[in-house]
Specification:
SH3 type barrels, Porin, mainly beta, 12-stranded antiparallel β-barrel
C-alpha cells in the first residue's frame, strides 16, 4: 500500500501548484488513508474524476490548466496538474437533478360571461406544475361567482333585479408518467360544479395515454386519449356513465420567456345518448411581466350537446387577469 501512495505522489508531485494555496510542498503529503477518505467524500458529492495511465484515479473538480495538461482541485489537497500523456480519461460528474418543487401561479381578474347568464364580475384561479424525473403533475382550480340579470337579453343587464347568475367551481388534477421521449401514460381527475346549469356536481376519473407531437424552445403540442368514468349529480337525479376523453395542450412563445400563446382543450364523450358530449377549453395570451408577475387575456368556452332543458348549449367567458408566480 505504501508503494502505491509513493508512486502516486511521484507522478503528481512535479506538477502540483501549491503556491496559490500558501502551502509548502512538504505539507501536501497526506497519508494514504486520508486520501482515500477524501476521495470517497468527493465521489459522494458527485465529483469529477481523472483516470491516469498507470491505473490511479484522482477525484475532485476539474479546473482550467495550461495547454497540454489536466488540472483537478482535490478536496483537502489542492490543485494537481498532470501532463496529458499521463491521463487516460476524464469523467465529468453528472449535474445534480433539479429540485422537484411546485411551480404555482395565482390569478385574479375581471370577466364577462355570455350564454346561460350575462354578468360582469371577478374570477379567481390557481394552477401548478411539478416535474420529478419521469413523473409530471399538473393541477388547476378556478372559481367564478357573480351576480347579474340571469337573462341572455342585452337590454336586461342593468334593468333587471340582480340574482346569482354564476356559481362555478372547477378542480383538475393530472399525473403524467413518461415512458419514452414522446409517449406518456396519464391519470386524471376533475370535479366540476355549476348549479346555474343544473349540475350540482360532475366527477370524472380517467386514465389513458398521450404523445408529445412537437416540443421546441418555442413551445410544445401534446395530445392524449383515454377512458373515464363520469358520476353526475343533476337536478333530475344521479347518473354514472363511462366516457371517452380526448385532450390537447398547446403553447407557443411569441417572445421568449415573455409573451406566450396558450390553449388547452378537452372533449368528453359520455356514453349515454341523453348526456351527449362536453367540450371545455381555455385559450389566450399570457404576458410574463417578470419572474414573479404575469397578466393574461383569455377566452373560456364550454359547450354541451345535451344541456338541461331550457339552458343554452354554449357558455363563453372573457377575462383579463393579473397573477403572481411562486
Amino acid at each position: 500500500m505504501r508503494s502505491a501512495g509513493v508512486a502516486f505522489w511521484r507522478l503528481a508531485r512535479p506538477t502540483i501548484r501549491a503556491e496559490s494555496y500558501g502551502l509548502r510542498r512538504s505539507n501536501m503529503k497526506p497519508s494514504l488513508a486520508g486520501m482515500a477518505v477524501l476521495a470517497v467524500l468527493a465521489l459522494g458529492a458527485g465529483a469529477d474524476e481523472v483516470h491516469l495511465t498507470n491505473g490511479d484515479r484522482m477525484s475532485g473538480t476539474v479546473v482550467s490548466a495550461p495547454a497540454g495538461h489536466v488540472a483537478i482541485d482535490m478536496p483537502g489537497i489542492g490543485v494537481v496538474t498532470v501532463p496529458d500523456e499521463l491521463v487516460a480519461s476524464v469523467v465529468r460528474a453528472k449535474p445534480p437533478e433539479p429540485s422537484a418543487t411546485w411551480v404555482t401561479s395565482a390569478d385574479v381578474g375581471v370577466m364577462l360571461s355570455t350564454g346561460n347568464s350575462r354578468a360582469r364580475d371577478a374570477t379567481v384561479a390557481l394552477s401548478g406544475k411539478r416535474a420529478a424525473g419521469r413523473l409530471e403533475q399538473l393541477f388547476g382550480v378556478s372559481l367564478a361567482r357573480s351576480e347579474g340579470s340571469g337573462s341572455t337579453d342585452n337590454s336586461c343587464i342593468l334593468g333587471c333585479p340582480r340574482i346569482r347568475t354564476r356559481d362555478q367551481l372547477d378542480i383538475d388534477y393530472e399525473a403524467r408518467w413518461k415512458t419514452g421521449p414522446a409517449w406518456y401514460l396519464l391519470g386524471n381527475f376533475e370535479l366540476f360544479r355549476d348549479p346555474i346549469k343544473e349540475i350540482d356536481g360532475r366527477i370524472t376519473l380517467g386514465a389513458g395515454a398521450g404523445r408529445t407531437l412537437w416540443e421546441r424552445d418555442a413551445g410544445s403540442l401534446t395530445t392524449d386519449i383515454g377512458i373515464s368514468q363520469v358520476r353526475e349529480s343533476l337536478i333530475g337525479g344521479n347518473q354514472n356513465n363511462p366516457a371517452l376523453r380526448w385532450g390537447v395542450t398547446f403553447n407557443h412563445w411569441l417572445q421568449p420567456e415573455r409573451l406566450e400563446l396558450f390553449h388547452q382543450g378537452q372533449l368528453l364523450k359520455i356514453l349515454d345518448a341523453a348526456r351527449g358530449a362536453v367540450w371545455d377549453s381555455g385559450s389566450g395570451i399570457r404576458f410574463h411581466l417578470s419572474d414573479t408577475w404575469q397578466a393574461s387575456l383569455r377566452l373560456d368556452l364550454q359547450h354541451e350537446t345535451e344541456p338541461a332543458p331550457g339552458r343554452e348549449k354554449t357558455d363563453a367567458t372573457y377575462s383579463a387577469t393579473l397573477g403572481i408566480k411562486f
